[in-house]
Amino acid sequence: MPFLKKHSLVALIYFLLIALLGVLLRLLPLIDISLDYKYIVHTHSHVALLGWVYTALTTLIYKLFLENALIDRKYRILFWCTQATIIGMLLTFPFTGYAVFSIIFSTLFLFASYLFTWLFIKNTTTNQKKTNSYKCIKISLWYMILSSIGPWALGYIMTTAGSGSNLYRNAIYFYLHFQYNGWFIMALFGIFFYILEEQMIKISPKTFQQFYWAINIGVVATFGISLLWMKPHFNIYIVSFLGALSQLFALGFLVKELLPFKRKIANKNATLSFQLLKIVAFLFLVKLFMQVIGSLPNFANSISYNTDLIIGYIHWVFLGAVSIALLWFLNYFKFIKLSNRSVLIYLIGFTLTEGLIFYKGLVVWWQLSLLENYFWYLVIASSVLMIAIINIFQMQFRE
Q: Is residue 338 part of a domain?
């Protein structure tokens, strides 16, 4: 459907905007610009999660499951209403932060996301509902709805406990956890299973059940990692650790099942797609190991108050596993075009920024001296990432 290609382009525009905002955030401490850093952070995060990822994922989900449901008009109305809420946030957060209008647009976005979930569940067929891909997408959308408890709770928390309270911080962590680890990851697995089903690569029911339950138990249990900054009861550490292990086992079950099909997967996918698959698998594996380490008491106590290590982890998941997977899927379904060069520049920019962010986190942790001109190096690294996304965006207009 031609309009889905346009929707993918809208998602790419948001991706480009968050890259520009990322460079701006790196510049703000270095040059005199009359902008509120915190407000730009709010803008950056909202456009990233709700603009780029949500738009790209829902476009792909519509293509795979609802393309033949005869609801194009309903979907397009909902799509543009959703975009109006995102643009509203883009125009209000930089100047007001969390205030009346930005909260109104954020709230309207939540209602739009609920409507999309309803459209998906109501209009998928009986045969689709039997597939592994559907099961993953459905649970991902429930995680998205579950995550919204965080934003709904913020208003009450701010008027009672205040924005400096533990409850306030935990509500934000609740939202982020079930967005990143529930909605994003399970939706991406759903799209991946769809591709396997399309290519007639069958996962045994037993293996899928093992994978499905292990990874979802992990999604719920690893929320405990977000609470470790409070130094809670030791049982929370145990639950978090077991949740992290559960997700490692889930990946192990899936990889073991797919190894015999390695040659078939390679033959059925273009070289670039297969390389992106391997990169995403590596990034996700590292993410899982980070969760295991982050649930150990000694490490958790140090990491919880180390902003750079937390940001490094969030960017590893968002710019790494999630964004590269989205680029791969959008390219696979011919919504966008990628080249080896644009992917290489992106990977260089990603590696440089992650290296510098984690480096600063370790410097703070080990109480070492920071590299001279470090913040300018970070600007340069972020600019490389921005150039890669600009290159990807420009490619969409080349014949």
A: yes
Check if the beta carbon of residue 110 is closer than 8 Å to that of residue 49.
no
Closest CA to 335 of 99, 40, 62: 62
Q: Which amino acid is at 20?
A: L
| pLDDT band at residue 237 under the 50/70/90 scheme | very high
- Is 395:338 a contact under the CB 8 Å cutoff? yes
Asked whether residue 206 is domain-assigned, the answer is: no
- Residues 366-375: pLDDT tens digits? 999 999 999 9
Neighbours of 185 (CB within 10 A): 24
Whole-angstrom distance, CA of residue 190 vs CA of residue 177: 18
Mapped onto helix, strand or coil, the DSSP state of residue 336 is coil
Whole-number Å distance between alpha carbons of 185 and 317: 9
DSSP string, 6-75: HHHHHHHHHHHHHHHHHHHHHHTTTS-----HHHHHHHHHHIIIIIIIHHHHHHHHIIIIITTSS-HHHH
Give the CA angle between residues 348, 353, 356 to the nearest 5°.
125
CA atoms within 13 Å, Cβ hemisphere of 188? 26
For the chain, what's the residue count? 399
- The dihedral of CA 306, 48, 397, 327: what is its sign? positive
Nearest 5°: CA angle at 36, between 48 and 144? 25
Q: For the chain, how many structural domains are there in total?
A: 2
Is the Cβ–Cβ distance between 19 and 52 less than 8 Å? no
Q: Return the structure tokens found at 71.
A: 């609801």
Within a domain: 143 = no
Of the three residues 69, 101, 124, the one that is the final residue of a domain is: 124
Can you tell me which residue has the tokens 């930089």? 94
Report d(CA 350, CA 365) in Å as an integer: 22
156 lies in some domain = no
- Contact at 8 Å (CB) between 302 and 348? no
Domain limit, last residue, from 83, 105, 124: 124
- Name every residue whose Cβ is closer than 8 Å to that of residue 282 and which is 6 or more positions away in sequence: none
178: which 2 tokens?
Answer: 């079930």
Domain, as residue range, for 74: 1-124
Cβ atoms of 140 and 183 within 8 Å: the answer is yes
Which tens digit of pLDDT belongs to each residue from 249-268?
999 999 999 999 999 988 88
pLDDT in tens, 198-231: 999 999 999 999 999 999 999 999 999 999 999 9
